[in-house]
Amino acid sequence: MIKSDEKQINYPFERLIAGALAEFPRDALFITAVSGGADSIAMLLSLARLGTYRLHCLHVNHGIRAPEEHSGDEEAVRSLCGRLGIPLTVVSSPQGEIIRTSKGIGVEACARLFRRKAWTQELHRLGALRVLTAHTRDDLLETVLMRILRGSGPSGLRGISQDNGLVFRPLLALTRTDVLNYLETLNVSFRNDPSNMDVRFLRNRIRHVLIPVLDKSFPDWRKSVFSFTETQSLTAEFLEKEAADRIKWAETENSHTLWTEKKTFFQAPLVVREQALFYAVDCIFSQLDEQKMSAPRRSVIRLFCQGNARGATRVVDAGMVVIAARGKRIIVSAKTNQTRNIT
User: Fold this and answer.
1) Is residue 292 in some structural domain?
2) Chain Cα centroid distance, residue 327
3) What residues make up the domain containing 309?
4) What pLDDT is recorded for position 176?
5) CA–CA separation, 132 and 42 (whole Å)
6) Given 75, 211, 317, 339, which is the most exposed site by the fewest CB atoms within 10 A?
7) Residue 270 to residues 64, 239, 275, 276, 331: CA-CA distances in angstroms?
8) Is residue 341 a contact partner of residue 326, using CB atoms and an 8 Å limit?
9) What tens digit of pLDDT does each residue of 4-61 get?
10) Model's pTM, two decimal places?
11) Phi, psi for 173 (deg, rounded to 5)
12) Are 266 and 192 found together in one domain?
């Protein structure tokens, strides 16, 4: 446990986290997602020192790296939780299982799905208010750069939301440098994940290759990107409302299939059609969280919207879903249920 006199020390790092969480009731129960790395260790430590909320730690072992590395991470988290008096749950994937099942969506995406499922189950089991994750401003910037390179639309380019109803990110106003300085001040160690240096992964190439070039050649690029995400957020909000007002989706007897009127769909502007299809896909994905899933690329969605406007493309394969024009309807259905022929 932290000594009572230690809790009185109030660092700027801790004050910013307290401010981020100020909207929540005191004594609320939060699940803290802690990997053992610097960001999550700093988050857990600062929350414990603040002593405002009830905490339950969740550590996820993805079974991707060598077993001794995973066991070292788990032991570090167990040790800190023991010192802080915070209960801990460990959820593990069988060694190598995520790698074996990641074909088509990638290891990072598959690990993210496993992690999110663990968060959701623990949140419901404990009746907690939110899962707290340790994403920083650096993570937000990296995510936006990744999405730019992948051709995301406004919804993706607005960055990482602080609160999505499941996950709350109290460190988004802080940088990775803030995290390291805080841990150094308190003389607290953390685990380093060697895979974070593996430039085969896009995020790592952005972090270790692209960002140093931007820092050297465009010193103010961070401010520009943050301004860009604010604009994209406003654009996304407008498009989402327009799509919801213009294009109404209805369910069929098959809960994994949605449809809308074809005529109404093609009367809407192209960008609104695209937004409406992304919304329908998201609705289906939310019902298939136990499945391997990958959101379709905008190019696939656009192919369908443009092709059907010219009367050319009737069906597109969008990964976990099929989008089709049948009779007077636009139909979006999960592949596992695509044999149902709705006209």
Assistant:
1) yes
2) 37
3) 247-337
4) 95
5) 12
6) 339
7) 41, 11, 9, 10, 17
8) yes
9) 344 444 589 999 999 999 999 999 999 999 999 999 999 999 999 999 999 999 999 9
10) 0.83
11) -90, -5
12) no
